TrEMBL record:
<dbReference type="InterPro" id="IPR006311">
    <property type="entry name" value="TAT_signal"/>
</dbReference>
<feature type="domain" description="Peptidase S11 D-alanyl-D-alanine carboxypeptidase A N-terminal">
    <location>
        <begin position="63"/>
        <end position="292"/>
    </location>
</feature>
<dbReference type="GO" id="GO:0016787">
    <property type="term" value="F:hydrolase activity"/>
</dbReference>
<keyword id="KW-1133">Transmembrane helix</keyword>
<feature type="signal peptide">
    <location>
        <begin position="1"/>
        <end position="38"/>
    </location>
</feature>
<dbReference type="InterPro" id="IPR001967">
    <property type="entry name" value="Peptidase_S11_N"/>
</dbReference>
<keyword id="KW-0378">Hydrolase</keyword>
<feature type="compositionally biased region" description="Low complexity">
    <location>
        <begin position="334"/>
        <end position="351"/>
    </location>
</feature>
<keyword id="KW-0812">Transmembrane</keyword>
<feature type="transmembrane region" description="Helical">
    <location>
        <begin position="358"/>
        <end position="378"/>
    </location>
</feature>
<dbReference type="InterPro" id="IPR012338">
    <property type="entry name" value="Beta-lactam/transpept-like"/>
</dbReference>
<feature type="region of interest" description="Disordered">
    <location>
        <begin position="329"/>
        <end position="360"/>
    </location>
</feature>
<keyword id="KW-0732">Signal</keyword>
<dbReference type="Pfam" id="PF00768">
    <property type="entry name" value="Peptidase_S11"/>
</dbReference>
<keyword id="KW-0472">Membrane</keyword>
<protein>
    <submittedName>
        <fullName>Serine hydrolase</fullName>
    </submittedName>
</protein>
Length: 391
C-alpha cells in the first residue's frame, strides 16, 4: 500500500617550522589517516587528512563532546571554515545521504510543474529492500511531488523515476560523478543514484558536507529538506500524507532541534546510520555530518545535536582546522598557475598558539625523530654533493 513501505532513517600544504619545510613534509606523511583517499587527502587542508580529532581551541573554548562515530565534521556554512573533524576523508558507505548529490545534480533540470506519467520501466531498477514513497506505474506526478518523495520519504522509487526522466540510471550516475568532481569531492564514488548499498559506493564526512552546502544554495533544495509533511498522490485523485524521516526536524521520537533547516538522513544495514544536518542560530548556520556511530539507533541524532551545540558555543573561540573548498565551476578564472585554496600545493596560514586536541605525533620520541631527520636533510642539502528502514 502507498505510504506503508519502508523508508530511510535515515594539501598537502607546507607548514612553517624552525626546521624549515622538512619537518612539515615529514609530519604530513606521518599523520595521513589510514582511511583517507590519497587523491583527496589534501582537499580542504592537511589536518583533515590527519589521524585523530582535529580542533584548534582558543581561550574559553568548550571541549568537544565524546563521540562514537567512525567519522564526523562540523563546519560554518557561510565561511566554509571546518571547526573540528574526525576521519573527515574516511571513505564509508553513505546510504541515503548520497541523495544530496543526486539533488545537487538533477534538481535544476526540470520545472516544478512538469508532469510525468510513470511507467513500469521507470521503476524497473529499484533495488530490493529499498525505501519507497509509494509511486505507482500509470499514475501521473508532478516533478514537485517526486522531489517531495525523495526528500521527505527518501523514496528510491521517486529517485529512479527522476533518473529515468533525466536519461537513465547510467547517465545520472555519470552526471553525479561529474558534479562530485566539480565540488572537489574526491572521496566519493557513485554506483547508483539512490544511495542504496552497492559495491564500491562510498563517500566521506567531508564530501557529504560539501553536498549539503552546495544544495542549500538552491532555494528549492532548501525548501524540500525543511518540509515536514506533504500530501502525496495515491491514484484515482486520492492522496495520503507523508512525513519527513529527519527526526531532528519533525521531533518524532527525539526532541526537534532549534533552528534546524535540514538536510538528509540515511540508514542501511551495511552503512549504518548517517546524517548531515544544518541549523541556524543568531544568523549563523552550521553544518554537521556524522557517519556510522558504533551503536544505538538514536546515536546519529544525539551526536549531531552534541556537535551543533558545541559549534554554536565555540563561536569565536576556535580557529579553523580546514575549509570547505569552493566548487571548481565557481572559482574565478585566472591565468595564474597558483593552486586553488585547499588544492595540493596550496599554502596554509601560520597556526597561532592555541590548544590543539589532535595533531598527535605519537609522543616526544616521534617529534624528535622527525626533527632530527629534517636537520640531517638540511645539512646534507648544504653540501655540494646533492529491520530497520533501509535507504
Amino acid at each position: 500500500m502507498p505510504g506503508t513501505t519502508a523508508s530511510s532513517n535515515c594539501p598537502q600544504m607546507s607548514r612553517r617550522s624552525a626546521l624549515g619545510m622538512g619537518l612539515g613534509t615529514a609530519a604530513s606523511l606521518a599523520l595521513s589517516a589510514p582511511h583517507a583517499s590519497a587523491a583527496s587527502s589534501a582537499i580542504g587542508g592537511e589536518r583533515l587528512a590527519a589521524a585523530g580529532v582535529q580542533v584548534r581551541r582558543g581561550a574559553g573554548a568548550p571541549k568537544l563532546p565524546k563521540l562514537a562515530a567512525k567519522a564526523w565534521l562540523v563546519a560554518d556554512n557561510d565561511s566554509g571554515d571546518v571547526l573540528a573533524s574526525y576521519g573527515a576523508h574516511r571513505s564509508l558507505p553513505p546510504a541515503s545521504t548520497l541523495k544530496m548529490l543526486f539533488a545537487d545534480t538533477v534538481l535544476p533540470q526540470f520545472a516544478h510543474d512538469l508532469r510525468h506519467r510513470v511507467t513500469a520501466e521507470d521503476l524497473a531498477d529499484i533495488p530490493a529492500g529499498s525505501s519507497l514513497v509509494g509511486i505507482q506505474a500509470g499514475t501521473t506526478y508532478t516533478v514537485h511531488q517526486l522531489w517531495q518523495g525523495v526528500f521527505l520519504r527518501s523514496g528510491n522509487d521517486a529517485v529512479h523515476v527522476l533518473a529515468s526522466m533525466y536519461g537513465g540510471v547510467d547517465k545520472t550516475v555519470a552526471a553525479m560523478q561529474a558534479r562530485a568532481k566539480d565540488l572537489q569531492a574526491g572521496d566519493t564514488h557513485v554506483a547508483s543514484p539512490d544511495g542504496f548499498d552497492h559495491k564500491g559506493q562510498v563517500s566521506s564526512a567531508y564530501d557529504l558536507t560539501l553536498f549539503a552546502r552546495a544544495g542549500l544554495k538552491n532555494d528549492d533544495f532548501r525548501g524540500y529538506c525543511a518540509t515536514k509533511v506533504a500530501e502525496f498522490p495515491a491514484g484515482d485523485g486520492k492522496t495520503f500524507q507523508i512525513q519527513n524521516t529527519d527526526r531532528l526536524l519533525t521531533g518524532q521520537g527525539i526532541a526537534a532541534y532549534e533552528g534546524l533547516i535540514g538536510v538528509k538522513n540515511g540508514y542501511t544495514s551495511h552503512a549504518g546510520n548517517t546524517f548531515t544536518g544544518a541549523a541556524t542560530r543568531d544568523g549563523r548556520t552550521l553544518l554537521v555530518t556524522v557517519m556510522h556511530p558504533k551503536s544505538g539507533y538514536e546515536a546519529v541524532y544525539q551526536e549531531t545535536v552534541a556537535l551543533l551545540d558545541w559549534g554554536f558555543a565555540a563561536s569565536g573561540k576556535v580557529s579553523a582546522v580546514g575549509e570547505l573548498v569552493t566548487p571548481l565551476s565557481e572559482q574565478p578564472k585566472s591565468s595564474s598557475s597558483s593552486p586553488a585554496p585547499g588544492a595540493p600545493g596550496a599554502s596554509s596560514a601560520p597556526r597561532p598558539a592555541e590548544h590543539d586536541q589532535g595533531w598527535a605525533l605519537g609522543g616526544s620520541a616521534a617529534v624528535a625523530a622527525l626533527a632530527g631527520g629534517s636537520l640531517l636533510a638540511l645539512r646534507r642539502r648544504g653540501k655540494p654533493s646533492g529491520r530497520r528502514r533501509k535507504s
